[in-house]
Design goal:
The protein is α/β, with parallel strands linked by helices. It has helices spanning 11-14, 17-25, 27-44, 63-70, 82-90, 135-149, 165-177, 224-235, 243-255, and strands spanning 53-57, 74-79, 96-99, 113-119, 150-160, 181-187, 196-202. The chain has a seven-stranded mixed beta sheet with strand order 3-2-1-4-5-7-6, sandwiched between helices. The two termini are 29 Å apart.
């Protein structure tokens, strides 16, 4: 059995230049990251016609941030790997990027964000990569500072890979201790391949957790991914990563005063093996 990435090296070392390139060149990795990001976005329950500012924790190459962009929201990303952030810059993501360790807390003012999202990052806090690291303390530091920088009716959704039930208990107990309400949503619980864990946290009091995907659906129900595709088509949005979509992104960056690459004959052209 292959070792878990967090057992091989600390994240800032594991996600080196070679590993980071996979998140711009490996189509399978990109597809999986996008699917999980779409699901996490759905669980955030953000208003569709009102832009929100979202914190992307462990933003990596910006794939999850791109899902937020496509749905009309703004985002700021934080990640411990400079190599992954360099890939995000190369991809010309719209979000602002910060180099930082989530275990040291979120360095933002109170009430700054309308929500938070994280893909495949939370389980790294369960490791003690340095002699002074205590997983419970790092989790508590992260969740308390995250709670503080969210608005009081916000949600935070974390897709993560727990190693065992003890890790789930440790993560959720520290989150609830920090002031959050919520719990874990499990998609496709009976499938070893498709099973996914999402920690859904809320600042606005106790609310019912959404059901996980993979339970028996009636023939009248549409899977969430297909539903989002149909909704986008109805709204008449540009197809994802088309030339019109890229030009719209660039124009929006210029209006925001951000540095933007000049348009060229290659803009929007498909590149073999590239995202």
């Amino acid at each position: 059995m292959a070792k878990r990435p967090e057992h091989l090296a600390p994240p800032e070392i594991f996600y080196n230049d070679d590993e980071a390139k996979k998140y711009s060149q490996n189509t399978r990795i990109i597809e999986i990251q996008e699917e999980m990001s779409e699901r996490a976005y759905e669980l955030l329950l953000l208003p569709e016609d009102e832009p929100q500012l979202i914190l992307d924790v462990g933003c990596g190459s910006g794939l999850s941030g791109s899902v937020l962009e496509e749905n009309g929201h703004y985002w700021i990303g934080i990640d411990i790997s400079q190599a992954m952030l360099d890939v995000a810059v190369d991809r010309e993501v719209e979000g602002d990027l910060i180099l930082g360790d989530m275990g040291e807390g979120m360095p933002f003012k109170a009430g700054s964000f309308d929500g938070a999202l994280s893909i495949s990052a939370l389980q790294w806090l369960c490791n003690a990569d340095k002699t002074h690291h205590v997983p419970q303390k790092r989790l508590y530091q992260f969740f308390t500072t995250l709670y503080a920088c969210l608005t009081r009716n916000a949600r935070a959704v974390f897709q993560f890979y727990p190693e065992n039930a003890e890790q789930i208990d440790m993560i959720t107990s520290q989150a609830l201790r920090s002031g959050f309400h919520g719990g874990v949503v499990v998609d496709y619980p009976n499938s070893s391949k498709s099973k996914k864990y999402y920690l859904v946290l809320m600042t606005g009091g106790v609310q019912q957790l959404p059901p996980g995907l993979g339970t028996e659906e009636s023939s009248e129900q549409i899977p969430y991914s297909r539903k989002r595709e149909l909704t986008k088509n109805i709204r008449g949005k540009n197809p994802k990563r088309s030339k019109d979509w890229i030009m719209h992104k660039k124009e929006r960056r210029r209006q925001q005063g951000n540095d933007t690459r000049a348009d060229s004959k290659y803009t929007g052209r498909k590149r073999s093996g590239r995202f």
